[in-house]
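COURSE: Structural Biology Practicum
ASSIGNMENT: Worksheet 4, Part C
STUDENT ID: 0417
INSTRUCTIONS: Below are two proteins. For each, the amino acid sequence is given first, followed by its structure token string. Answer the questions at the end about the second protein only.

PROTEIN I
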Amino acid sequence: MAINPGPFVLTDTRLIMSPAGSATPKPVTPDFYAEPDDEFPSFGGLSLVAQHTFEEPWSTWEMHPKADEFVYLLSGDIDFVLWVDGAEEVVRVDQPGSYVVVPQGV
């Protein structure tokens, strides 16, 4: 077997999926979000699987210019705020197992 099959925990080790279906576990480091561009040029066609926990509202915006984003609720509830056509759009997500698709560029 070429890679360690795990088990892994998404909060500590992200998963990078290729268009061909290969899966590469990648440990989280302080420079994690800068590293994939070096290892996987332009992150072209790859998908990142990650898990985050938030105890309070996220104070910053983010945008994915090259792809849609899939956000899956594991527990709790959130008001997911999107910036669409120059205005906030709030999507209430209150059922674990629900998800939101954030369109590319939003």
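PROTEIN II
(use this one for the questions)
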Amino acid sequence: MRPDLRRILRHWTTTHWQVRRAFPHSVLLAIERAIKNAEARHCGELRFVVEAALDGLLLLRGQSARERAIDVFSRLHVWDTERNCGVLIYLLLADRRMEIVADRGIHARVGSQGWDAIGQRMQSAFAAGDFERGAIECIDAVAQHLARHAPASRANELQDAPTLL
């Protein structure tokens, strides 16, 4: 597979400053509040992660946003919840790609089409530059699935604050 030079350049030029511009402190706090409010309605665990760009070998190997999201899902132990209801919402800013990775307990009930529909709405908001609205609407839509399929019954297992990589 031949490296995509445009993608490599885009990743090299996307900085953490751009992430902070799209997700300033006030937006990160709003996302954290949305996650806390959502988790009060279900036993699922939500993590929201924004990564500016891939670097080094990940980029040169052509790792996709989906593959990276799965790596982050594992690294942050989103899969390690009591009822297998962890959900990662991952944004790779350089690619303008958003991925939702759900643990097997909730994915079996919602399926890929359910997550894809949420992702498309979020990406539309992001394309318009409305990162806060896109993130909050995505969290709410994921929470609706979790409330339907994994009602509240236990304490918070993972941190609610968004993670910037």
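ANSWER KEY EXCERPT:
Q1: The chain has one domain: 5-164.
Q2: The longest strand covers residues 45-51.
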